[in-house]
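Q: Sequence in, structure out?
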Amino acid sequence: IKRLVYTTLKHRFMPHNVAACKFKLPERLCDIRKSDNACELDFVCRACDVEQSNFFSGFFDDRSSIQGQLANIINDRSFIKGTYDVLFRVRDDKGWVVYLIDWKSDTLEAYDEATMREHIKHHYAIQVAFYSHAVKNDLLRLNRHWSDENARYIYGGMIYLFLRGINPDDD
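A: Exactly. Output:
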C-alpha cells in the first residue's frame, strides 16, 4: 500500500480530455498545494434535484439513459449521501476552478482512454450525475450570489483515477 500511495502521488497524470479543461491542471497530485485541496468530504443532496438538473448533461451523449436509471432509483424523499475523495482547486487570472478526483480500484482489461471512458460510461454515469450536482450545490452554498452558470464555470469536472492503471515504472 505504501508503494501504491507514493506512486499515485508522484505519477505524472493528465486527464484525457485536457483540451476541454479551462485551466492548467497540476501534472502530479503531489503538486497540489495542501491549502488548495480537501480530502474525504461528506455530502448529502436531494436525489430529485439531480434528476431535474441539466448540470450533468454535457458529460454523456445519451442523457436519456441516465434519466432512466435515475427514475428507477429515486423518489421525492430520496437523499444521496456520499464522500468526495479529493476536491482541489486551480487558479488563473479569471478565478478558481474546482475539480473532483475519485479513486477507482476497478480491474480493467486495459487502462487506455477508450476502455476507461467506456467503463465510466457504463458503471459510473449515475455517480457523475450525483457527485457533479452535489459539488455544484456545495459551491453555491459557499457563495450565495453565484448563479448556476457561474457554478458550471467553476466546477471543472471529475477525474477518475484508476489506481491499478498507474504503472510505477512510468514517469
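The mean pLDDT is 76.
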